[in-house]
Design a protein that fits this description.
About 50% of the residues lie in helices and about 20% in strands. By secondary structure, the protein is of the alpha+beta class. Strand 14 (about 545-555) and strand 15 form a beta hairpin.
Length: about 775
């Protein structure tokens, strides 16, 4: 049996140890101090006697008198001598040592008398203390003699031992008494309280969790008792919580078992060797058992689906090895009656309390009917895909037909534009030539009517082409810096004569807009002119008001709103919705009364939307209408360009600066060739002519021309190919080559530029258009 010290014994031992250490250290200190003081007192007396002899206050012979030296030193004088400079004893307490060499005297060390030895030193013996001093001459400090005094320290050592003995005895007695007192006090103050605490703890251990230790004092033991009481209280609370948690866990376990049992799916779990650990009743029923516990310990090889067991086990091992679930996969299963089911299965790793994989948890559902439905749906889908493919082929054929129709439409519009513009160019050209040759007022009026009819026909053609390009998404805006006020004033000027003829007032109401905006001025003017022209057409009395203002504005752009209000016939509400449709007007009678194609408003709305805005109308029958459209115009950055200086008309400039140039004109139409030659004859009286592209290339290869005008459509070789071949001739890069064409689509211009032409001049244009185009081309060539 192992002996164990009690708490009181350990406290007593601790007190004894502390007191022994304390008294030992204190006793050693005082004994050391007493010994050092006694030794110092003896040594100081020895030094005093030696000093008195050195100073000749005492004769050297006093060293031979033991009684006198003992009285002077206060200690028993044992022996003494004076050693002269020759090394012999000249004075001695023992007469037998007189005259002897010092090294022959017992107890004498000759190293004491060496020159390198200290002037004074003490030599401690067992019960003796020897003092050695060098006496020097005061003149040259040479050693004259040496004194050696030896006293007995036996009595002093005996006093030291007596003091140590009595000190140890007293300390031991005090330690025993104080330890006994500490044990008695500790026994009273600690042991009884500890026994009481232990008794309470035993009762708590037996289940009396309400027991508490009585605390008599708030000392350290009392605080410990308070802590034990608090711990006991918390332990009781924790045990109550544990009991409650156990009850809750039991309820949750029962609930989980109920959920697993009543879940409308099959649930099972296996161990690491794929042996069944449990399942629900539905799973047991699929396996041909009445109760779930009948499956415990069995494997898939023991079931009706043993043919699938190897695959099931491979899935189990893959899930357990990877720790990754395998979810929602379909697999077949053989039933006890030999049938086949299709299962939608999921398997996840089954983890133990240490989070290690110990098995697999699986669920599955019977999806046999769903599988059959999916197979049926797949057959329908394949049939539908076949139908979709057939329909796609039909649509592809229809798309190709539509694309072919669109190509035919574009070709038709281009051909129509060419076929109409070509004779129209001849009509306008002839009228212009007649006017330039001088006419009577009646003839001038007739020519004006020709101009009006031609402009109307040209406007219809342009409207149809614009609408076609917009619908084909081939319409591009020409964005440049513009002035809204100038556009409004220009439109008002253009309708001024017609309004004045009907007695209508044209009013302008515009709010200030930023002076420098970016947009397509031509299309803004076209849209606003459509509105203003219609307002004049459908108003018999009153006024037409043109407005422009900023509907919205930010740091980047302005949403400009343009309005044209009239006091005309107005529009019924039921007709407003169809107003902006293509080829539609309010009714057929308006077409007969006022004319028009029904394209203007449709084009205006499309232009407005191309410019980031929209278009609309508000109208009251009999009171008038207000047509509006908006356009988003970006703000121009930097400083405005300097205004271009006003110069003479292009025809006059050409006649003045470029009259000596040589020109080649190629056109297969004799009338157009004649008109163009006649129009340009005032500037260039002589001009070479060609009837097609072949002739033009031949002439260009023989002659040097400054300007070459080529019709795009010519027999044998068109203008595109002719321009390309002329550019390949020596010096073919130099002449200005312009296309004379009735084809005004953007792709026509692109073809001309790609062939090496500098620009094109549209046929059926204003009379000054060819002069302006030629002048601009010559200047661009010069730059």
């Amino acid at each position: 049996m192992t002996f164990r010290f009690g708490l009181i014994s350990r406290i007593a031992l601790l007190v004894v140890g502390i007191e022994v250490a304390a008294f030992g250290a204190l006793g050693w200190f005082y004994i050391d101090r007493y010994t050092a003081a006694a030794d110092e007192r003896l040594r100081s007396r020895l030094r005093l006697v030696e000093t008195m002899i050195t100073r000749e206050e005492l004769p050297v012979s006093v060293i031979s008198r033991k009684e006198l030296v003992s009285d002077l030193l206060g200690a028993p004088y044992v022996d003494g001598m004076v050693v002269g400079g020759s090394g012999r004893v000249i004075v001695a307490a023992d007469p037998l040592n007189l005259g002897r060499p010092a090294q022959d005297v017992a107890g004498i060390d000759v190293r004491w008398f060496a020159d390198a030895a200290p002037n004074h030193q003490f030599v401690q013996g067992r019960d003796t203390l020897t003092s050695v001093a060098h006496v020097h001459r005061t003149t040259d400090m040479a050693a004259v003699y040496f004194t050696v005094l030896t006293i007995s320290t036996a009595e002093l050592q005996a006093q030291k031992r007596s003091i140590v003995l009595w000190g140890e005895a007293g300390s031991l007695l005090f330690i025993l008494l104080s330890s006994a007192g500490v044990v008695l006090v500790a026994q009273r103050l600690i042991t009884r309280r500890i026994h009481a605490s232990v008794a309470v703890l035993k009762r708590v251990e037996e289940g009396a969790l309400g027991e508490r230790i009585p605390v008599a004092s708030d000392d350290e033991l009392g605080q410990l008792q308070h802590g034990i009481n608090s711990m006991t209280e918390k332990l009781a609370a924790l045990l109550e919580q544990q009991r409650q948690a156990t009850d809750d866990l039991q309820k949750q376990t029962e609930l989980l078992q109920s959920v697993i049992e009543h879940a409308p799916i099959r649930v099972f779990w296996k161990d690491g060797d794929s042996r069944y650990l449990g399942c629900n009743t539905l799973f047991a029923g699929d396996a041909g058992f009445d109760r779930p516990d009948e499956l415990i310990g069995k494997t898939d090889f023991d079931m009706a689906w043993r043919d699938q067991a190897a695959r099931y086990r491979a899935d189990d091992r893959a899930v357990m090895a990877s720790g990754t679930p395998k979810l929602d996969f379909d697999e077949p299963q053989t039933t006890p009656d030999g049938g086949t089911l299709w299962l939608r299965t999921s398997k996840v790793p089954l983890l133990g309390t240490d989070r290690r994989v110990i098995g697999v948890l699986g669920i599955y559902d019977d999806v046999t009917q769903r599988k059959r439905d999916a197979d049926e749906l797949e057959r329908h889908r394949e049939h539908l895909e076949q139908m979709v493919e057939e329909r796609t082929n039909e649509l592809s054929v229809a798309k190709e037909a539509a694309e072919a129709a669109n190509v035919a439409k574009s070709a038709f519009l281009a051909n129509m534009s060419h076929e109409i513009r070509t004779p129209l160019h001849a009509i306008l050209g002839m009228a212009n030539l007649i006017r330039r040759s001088g006419v009577t007022p009646a003839q001038a009026t007739q020519l004006d009517r020709i101009d009006v009819a031609s402009e109307h026909l040209l406007g219809i053609i342009n409207a149809i082409l614009d609408l076609s390009r917009i619908e084909a998404d081939k319409f591009a805006l020409n964005v440049a810096e513009l002035n809204v006020g100038a556009i409004v004033n220009n439109v008002c000027s253009m309708i001024g004569d017609a309004a004045q003829a009907k007695g209508l007032r044209v009013l302008v109401e515009s709010d200030p807009l930023p002076p420098r905006l970016l947009g397509d001025a031509t299309r803004l003017r076209q849209a606003l002119l459509n509105y203003a022209g219609n307002a004049v057409k459908f108003t018999e009395r009153g006024s037409v008001t043109v407005r422009a203002r900023a509907a919205q504005e930010d740091a980047e752009a302005v949403l400009a709103r343009f309005e044209v209000s009239d006091t005309g016939i107005g529009i019924a509400p039921e007709h407003v919705a169809q107003l902006f449709n293509v080829f539609e007007q309010v009714d057929s009678s308006s077409t007969r009364q006022f004319g028009g194609t029904g394209l203007g408003l449709a084009i205006t709305r499309r232009l407005a939307r191309l410019m980031g805005g929209d278009a609309g109308v508000t109208s009251t029958p009999g009171a008038g209408s207000t047509f509006w459209f908006t356009a988003r115009l970006a703000k121009a950055a930097g400083h405005p360009p300097a205004p271009a200086p006003r110069e003479a008309e292009p025809e006059a400039v050409l006649k003045r600066d470029y009259g000596g140039l040589r020109i080649l004109l190629a056109d297969d139409d004799p009338d157009n060739r004649y008109i163009t030659q006649a129009l340009l004859s005032d500037v260039w009286p002589k001009m070479d002519l060609a009837a097609d592209g072949v002739e033009a290339v031949e002439l260009a290869s023989r002659n040097r021309y400054d300007i070459i005008l080529l019709d795009m459509r010519m027999p044998r070789m068109d203008g595109i190919e002719a321009a390309r071949r002329i550019r390949e001739l020596p010096g073919g890069k130099e002449p200005l080559i312009l296309a004379l064409t009735a084809n005004v689509f953007p792709e026509n211009r692109r073809q001309c530029l790609e062939a090496g032409m500098d620009d094109l001049i549209p046929k059926a244009a204003k009379a000054e258009a060819p002069f302006a185009a030629i002048l601009e081309g010559l200047r661009r060539k010069a730059r």
